[in-house]
């Protein structure tokens, strides 16, 4: 399997690189196919207005610490670029893009009748009775409106998010930490970004289906025809870091984004219900619409079912991982942009500007592939 890792490194996020860092367990997800994506490279020229100036493609790539950039037009690779020392065989840590893969797995479980959005969390995971997840549903977890007292701050080494990740670094039991999450507000009334919600969501999905995250990703990889192995970080008990521990090639991240268009794989096979793909891309509450999330997260996207709508109708949607991991799709044209990055994280203002500029560039690239769009 490929052994190099680019983009966001787990160690840089106070995680660990599951392939290189001692003490980090991981499971290999085997490649699911041998047919590469078709390629028809052509010049790509964009002008990105952001951060107080205009950027051409090269300037935007540099200004956002890009490590790979892949552009697909209806399943065909039309642009592919990698930074020095990484390439097509590199496994790029998706960080929280891993959550959007989890959404695909949940969508399949729902479509297959193993799970329902209305299912109570504690009906499937009774170990969480008496915690903040008592009284929440699958839908609450998918939309990160569980109402728990979780605080997602990876810059705080003593905070719950850092302690959760430490369970993966030292071979601990990450699920035991979820017992300490308490209630804060009524579920369904407030958005709070929460890797704990994702971890509980995967626990619920696993109980409903009897299959682990890694097992289901392997099935997805097979059905998508992914051509490279991937890796999933696991803790000492074998539970996956379903909220941030999947590393895959840029081309395979593109296949993940393509599935968000209409629930079909590159070869046209339906893997998700069309209605699921539609609903996953739409904000279910007004406060989840683009521009309505806390500004510390972004003013350029909203939140759906573990995917980030880039417009109110969900016509464009992206997976989003810390430090600039993005796999975006235009659901009208089928265009996809994958961008991995490695920008500084400790300075929240740098982090915010790089994310904002990245979103603007993603839109500019998707605009190029929209024949119905008239130039501004």
| Average pLDDT rating | 92
Shape descriptor reads globular
CATH topology: Beta-lactamase
Chain oligomer state: single chain
Question: Which CATH class?
Answer: Alpha Beta
The radius of gyration over CA amounts to 19 Å
* Structure classification: alpha+beta
The proportion of strand residues reads: 15-25%
Count the DSSP helices: 11
Blueprint of the fold:
Elements: E1 5-7, E2 25-29, E3 47-50, E4 53-56, H1 57-63, E5 66-73, E6 76-82, E7 91-93, H2 97-111, H3 121-124, H4 138-142, H5 160-169, H6 174-178, H7 195-209, H8 213-224, E8 230-234, E9 246-248, H9 250-262, H10 274-280, E10 308-309, E11 316-321, E12 325-330, E13 336-341, H11 348-368
Parallel strand pairs: 1-7
Antiparallel strand pairs: 2-8, 3-4, 5-6, 5-13, 7-9, 8-9, 10-11, 11-12, 12-13
Helix pairs in contact: 2-7, 9-10
């Amino acid at each position: 399997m490929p052994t190099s890792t680019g983009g966001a490194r787990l160690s840089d996020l106070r995680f660990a690189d599951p392939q290189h860092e001692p003490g980090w367990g991981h499971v290999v997800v085997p490649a699911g196919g041998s047919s590469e994506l078709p390629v028809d490279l052509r010049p790509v020229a964009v002008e990105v207005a952001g951060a107080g100036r205009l950027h051409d493609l090269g300037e935007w790539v540099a200004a956002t610490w890009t490590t790979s950039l892949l552009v697909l037009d209806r399943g065909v690779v039309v642009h592919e670029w990698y930074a020095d020392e990484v390439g097509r065989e590199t496994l790029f840590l998706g960080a929280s893009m891993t959550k959007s893969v989890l959404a695909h797995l949940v969508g399949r479980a729902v479509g297959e009748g193993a799970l329902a959005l209305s299912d109570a969390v504690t009906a499937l995971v009774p170990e969480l009775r008496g915690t903040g997840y008592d009284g929440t549903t699958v839908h609450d977890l998918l939309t990160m409106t569980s109402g728990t007292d979780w605080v997602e701050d990876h810059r705080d080494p003593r905070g719950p998010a850092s302690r959760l990740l430490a369970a993966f670094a030292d071979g601990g039991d990450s699920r035991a930490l979820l017992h300490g999450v308490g209630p804060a507000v009524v579920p369904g009334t407030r958005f709070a970004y929460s890797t704990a919600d994702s971890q509980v969501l995967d626990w619920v999905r696993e109980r409903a289906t009897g299959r682990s995250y890694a097992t289901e990703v392997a099935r997805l990889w097979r059905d998508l025809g992914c051509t490279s192995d991937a890796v999933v970080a696991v803790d000492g008990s074998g539970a996956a870091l379903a909220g941030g521990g999947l590393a895959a090639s840029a081309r395979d991240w593109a296949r993940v984004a393509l599935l968000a268009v209409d629930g079909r794989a590159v070869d046209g096979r339906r893997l998700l219900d069309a209605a699921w793909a539609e609903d996953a891309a739409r904000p279910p509450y007004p406060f989840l619409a683009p521009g309505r999330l806390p500004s510390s997260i972004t003013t350029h996207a909203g939140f759906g079912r573990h995917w980030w709508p880039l417009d109110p109708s969900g016509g464009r949607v992206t997976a989003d991982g810390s430090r600039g991991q993005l796999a975006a799709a235009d659901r009208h044209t089928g265009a996809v942009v994958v961008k991995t990055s490695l920008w500084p994280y400790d300075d929240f203002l740098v982090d915010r500007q790089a994310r904002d500029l990245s979103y603007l560039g993603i839109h500019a690239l998707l605009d190029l592939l929209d024949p119905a769009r008239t130039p501004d």
